[in-house]
Every structure is written in C-alpha cells, then in structure tokens.
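USER: Fancy drafting a protein?

ASSISTANT:
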Amino acid sequence: MRTVVFDLDGTLVDTSADLVAAANACFRARGLGDVLDPEADAAVAFRGGRAMLTEGFSRCGAGGNAEIEADYPKLLEAYGAAIAVHSRPYDGAWGAVETLKNRGFAVAICTNKPERFAIRLMEEMGTFHVLPTIVGADTLPVRKPDPETYLEAVRRAGGDPARSIFVGDTETDVNTARAAGVPIVLVGFGPEGQGVSRLGPDAMLDHFADLPDLADSLLPAG
C-alpha cells in the first residue's frame, strides 16, 4: 500500500508557542524571565527541549550542561501539563490527510517527540482518530534520523516502505528519508519558510491542499 508518513511538530502542527512556554517556565524558575519568544524562536523550539534550554542559557550567560540536564525533566513536565494551549494545525492539514486516506494511502506519524506527548497532543486536539499510527522518539531504541523509526511507522500503518514518502520540515527529516531511501517532501510554511529548499528535498509543499496530487505524482497508483 502507498504510504505517506508525516513529521508532527512544524509539519502538521505548529507547536512552537507551547514548547517555548515550557522552556520559559524553566527560565522563570531560575529568575531569568521569559528568555525565548514564541514567534521569533519557533525554529529553536522545533529543534527540541534541550536546544531551547541551551539557547536560553546561552543568551543569559547562565547555565551549562548540568543546568540543562537538571531542567530538561522540568521542561517536559511543564509541556505535558499545557500541551495544546496555543498549538494549531497548519491550514488544511487534516483535510489533506483524509483525502489521502480516501485515495487509498496509508498514513502515519514519525516524530522525535516522545510518543506519549505526541498521542496526548493529537488527543487533546481531537485528531488522534485521523492519524492514530505514531512512532515517537522513545517508541524504539533509536530515533530519527535512524531510518528504522520511519520504516517502523510505515509497517505499523500497513504500508510498503518502497512505496512511501516522508513529509517533514527539518534537516533531520531529510536525513531520515535519505537513510530510508524514500522521497522527502518539505513544507514551505514552517518557521524557515521556503528557506528549507536549501536542503534539497525531492519536492516542496506550499499548502496542504496540494499534497494529495503531489503524493500521487511521487507514488503513482498501480
């Protein structure tokens, strides 16, 4: 079966503001205030919790590896407690997924977000039924860009890795797709916009409305 696998943060859903809020909770607890900006630092947020802590401490000239590791569990706790306050799907995301399913595609998520958080986010947004197949950062002993995470997502969706594509937004997603030997489509509406084209994807996606036809062109039926 033809399969489309999606990254989650920065691809299907803009989660940057809730991620930044969790990091800022850690900084406030140390008397540093709200160090990161939910809009200007969206790209930092999509690199993960430790990246946000590293960037924030660097800006303040306070904290190092010990502080980052100490605050990381606190960041996860804060994020889990308010995971879908500001997060919103990108325009047309769920409609495109449903259209793909109606055309006979299997669909799945492959993310470096911990699996429990990915599931909770989808549940709180009321969209877990749309994409219930999720492989997260801790589902397997490895995580992206290890191709096994992607391949496992395809298998769990009932698809064929040789007839699949990955839709993402970062260099990690590109490296994952290349390692798995599948086409990579990058979205042009994330924090970096069209700048992600520098990563040399097989295709760029400017709006989710275009995805079903693009998937058909990359994975012809038959």
